[in-house]
Amino acid sequence: MSLADIRTKSRQRPPRLVLYGGAGIGKTTFGASMPDPIFILTEDGMGTIDAPQFDLCKSFNEVMGCLNDLADESHDYKTVIIDSLDWLEPLIWQQACEDNGWRSIEQPGFGKGYVEVLRYWRQYIELLNKLREEKNMITLQIAHNQIKRFESPEIEGYDRHELKLHRKAADLILEHSDCCFFANYKLGTVKVQGKGGNMTTKAVSGDVVAYCREKPAYLAKNRYALPDQLPFSWPEIRKAMLGEEKGE
Alpha helices of 26-162 — where are they, by DSSP H? Predict the structure, then answer.
């Protein structure tokens, strides 16, 4: 390494994505629309979607075996999709319990088991990074959502949508990701006439969108200067990530 090796522009690498939202909103379908995808399944949620997939993984070691196969063998897949993170988490807990002789993840004492399993999460993340660096693969990790209380140090706490994972695991996944998209219906309100002729406000939902920036109602992030929301479409999101909507 020398001063001659210094770059002024970062090298564009495949994105590391997290996508979460409610059941049936289209997360798996979104993944199947990405370039040459292959699914690593921890839940049986493919339905009628026709896409390359490993057999359903029933242990953490099986998940790691699939990732290692993709890292070690020659193939033409361009996107690896984990479906889903919240079904992967109990497999990691199970592996940690077997390795440590615990009856449950709670046995080591308050919070200690959840700290210990971060070691397994990091091994998993290392393999995702290997696929990105050596196989030039996009990584998409799918998760369901949950509504949890967020305690802000600046204002009174409030409820928001988050990843359906233990907080420590969710924090690690978010740190690793380049984008975390929250898929949900675009919400709005209309005025309707109620009983007695009084006008009332009614909530309505529209198309599914990908929320790209954090708001009080939901967790999200991106490292591509994306707008607050985008159409729930991989071609549209990728175009925005590449700056094409700005003529770049």
Answer: 27-32, 60-72, 85-100, 112-116, 118-135
- Which of these, 127, 164, 155, lies nearest to 16 by C-alpha position? 127
Integer Cα distance of 4 and 16 in angstroms: 29
For β-strands 158-163 and 199-211, DSSP reports them as unpaired
Structural domains in the chain plus CATH codes: 13-246 (3.40.50)
CB 93 within 8 A of CB 152: no
In order of 65, 85, 139, 149, 191, the CA distances from 136 in angstroms are 19, 22, 10, 38, 50
Taking the alpha carbons at both ends of the chain, their separation in whole angstroms is 31
Write out the chain's pLDDT in tens, 248 residues: 566 656 555 667 999 999 999 999 999 999 999 999 999 999 998 989 999 999 999 999 999 999 999 999 999 999 999 999 999 999 999 999 999 999 999 999 988 999 999 999 999 999 999 999 999 999 999 999 999 988 777 778 789 999 999 999 999 999 999 999 999 998 654 445 466 656 454 444 579 999 999 999 999 999 999 999 999 999 999 999 998 644 33
E strand residue ranges, 10-55? 16-21, 37-41
Q: From CA 35, how far away is CA 55, in angstroms rounded?
A: 20
Rounded distance, CA 29 to CA 115, Å? 33
